[in-house]
Amino acid sequence: MGVPYTEPAMGGIRKAEPGDTPVYGVAYLLTEKDMHQVILSEGGGIAYTAEPLTATLESDSATIPVTTLLARHDIPVGYERLPSERYMGLLIRGAEEHSLPTPYQERLLSQPTFIRPIGYRFKAGKWLFDIFWQRVSWYIETGVHYFKNEDGNVPRWFLIIFDCLLWTMWFYHDYFHSIIWGRGDGLKTRSFNRFTL
């Protein structure tokens, strides 16, 4: 989950369940320092954990060890939010540029996205929401850079505070703010968009 009205959801890898689409991607050879920088750039462990996995190469079905970022929280499907058009556009362009398998690209293209409604009510609601929560996001980002360890991760106490703020923000959005100003996650509005290339 991300921030309502701006980036309601981000992508995450989780353990596959029946019917899930496998994850495809590109493996990069990074130094330890580079990997720590990736972890830091993705929130210092507040959203993802670095985990060792085994990847199967598309070229010859050989397997290689990889370290990737897995979603730290297993969000129930019924509570998932919609990603922004901007975010999905990045994933779709990357999949196309690296010629990832066609069924995977089609899956990305079929992902509904959050479309910002047009109108003063939504704009006012976003502005009012952002007055407080974007400032909180800034403090979290600043805290990640200040409290990170040599691996790029923040300490456990920071994760606890972050989780409390994240769930408080979404509770406020779902049960108070969105009732007056409209939802900032695309749910229940059904204003979905499907990408075309």
Automatic annotation (TrEMBL):
Keyword Hydrolase in record: no
Task: Supply the EC number(s).
Answer: 4.3.2.9
EC top class named in words: lyase
Record's keyword terms, sorted: Lyase
Tell me the superkingdom of the source: Eukaryota
Any one GO molecular function term? gamma-glutamylcyclotransferase activity
Q: Where is the active site?
A: E42 (proton acceptor)
Record: residues binding substrate = Y87
Q: What is this protein identified as? A: gamma-glutamylcyclotransferase
Source species: Penicillium salamii
